[in-house]
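Entry 14. Structure prediction run on the chain below.
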Amino acid sequence: MTAPGGGDEPSPPPPPSSSAASHAMASEPVTPTSALASGQQGLNRRGSRGAGMATFSMEVFDNEVVPSTLSSIAPILRVAAEIEPERPRVAYLCRFYAFEKAHRLDQNSIGRGVRQFKTALLQRLEKDNSPSLAKRVKKSDAREIESFYQQYYENYVRALDKGEQADRAQLGKAYQTAGVLFEVLCAVNKNEKVEEVNPEIIRLHKDVQEKKDIYTPFNILPLDAASASQSIMQLEEIKAAVAALRNTRGLTWSSTFEPQRQKGGDLDLLDWLRAMFGFQRDSVRNQREHLVLLLANVHIRLEPKADPLSKLDDRAVDVVMTKLFSNYRKWCKFLSRKHSLRFPQGAQPQEIQQRKILYLGLFLLIWGEAANIRFMPECLCYIFHNMAYELHGLLAGNVSIVTGENIRPSYGGDEEAFLKKVVTPIYRVIRKVSNIGKQIII
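Output returned:
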C-alpha cells in the first residue's frame, strides 16, 4: 500500500489529483503511486453521468453506490464513514486502501460506473488528506491505526462481548469492523516497511476471527451455538425442527468437513448435502432457516398435538413433503416415470425421517440456487429427479458399474460445483435460445 504521510515525515506526499487521475484513467491504467506523483491541482470536475451510470459526489459515495464489480470494498468504506468523527486519519487510510483495492480489482476501469467511482474517491482523498493529517494523534500512520485498533477492541469488541445479553447485530458489526481495521493496518505497515505487526495486535485479531466464525449471519433464526439462549430458539417447535435437522447419524462425511466435526461444530443434514453436492455456503444458511421454519410451523399446528412437542412429529414432515413435492409427483406421472423419493426397507423411524428431510433439503437447495431456472418448473423437476436418484445411491452405498467405486454426484461435489456445473450451463443455453428468438422477431 502506498499510503500518503508514511513513516515519521512531517509533510507527506499529496494525495492523487482528481483531474490528473481522471485523465490518466481515460488513457491508461493509473496506480495509486503514479496518482500520488501527479501533484495537487484544483477540483475542477466531478464524476460525470454516463449512460446508465451513477453520478458520484465527494460527500456521499461511501457504500451506497459502490459499483457491483467492486462490492468487496463496500465494508471498508462503511468502516471509514463510521470512524471518521473519532479518527479522521484512520478513516482516510481506510479510503486510500479501498482505492488501491478497487484499482487491483479493475485496473482499466472497464466495469460499469467504476471510472466515475474512482474519480470521486480520488477527489475525496485529495480533500481529506491535509485536514486528517493535522488531526493525527500519533507520529506515523502505522502507529495511528495500530493505537486505534487496540482502542476499538477494548471499547467495542470486548465491552460488547462481556455484556450479559450480548447484542448479536452489534457484535457482528464490531467483529467486521475490527477485521477491516486489521486488513488496513497490515497494508499500512507494509508500506511503511514495518517488519511485523505487533504480536498483541495479532493476538487480538485471532480472538476476533474465532468469535466472528461463531456469530454467523442470519435472517430470522440465529442457529449458531452462541445464540441458543435467544427467545425464538427457546420455542419447542423450533427446538424440535433443529434437532431433527442435526440428526446426521450414519452419514459418511468428506475429508474437508472432518476438522469442523472434530471441533464439535453443529453440522447438520444441509451441511452434508453441501459437502456431497457442492452447494454454496450462504445458500445453505438461507435454506436451513427456510426448512426449519416450514417444519416448525406445521409441527406446532398438528391436531392432535405432537407428544412430546420437543420431538419433530413424522406427520409434520409428511405434510411438508406433500406440499413441496406435489408438482414433482405430477411431473413423474405425466412422463410415466417412477419418482426418486425412495426409502430403505425395514429401517428405523428416525432413519426414514432423516431420509425425508434430506430430500426436502435437497429440493430447497436446488431451488435456492436455480436463479431464473426456478421459473421453469419442469427443468427443476428434472434436476431434482436425477440428483435425488444420486442421493439415494450415496446413502445406499451403490457402486458404479463403470468405475467400480461408490456412486458420487455426476458433476462432482467441489465447492460451489452445483452453481458452476449445473445451473450456469443451463442458464447459458436458455439465454442463447432467448437471444435467437429475439433476432427472429426483429
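The chain has two domains: 18-214, 225-441.
Filed with the rest of this week's runs.
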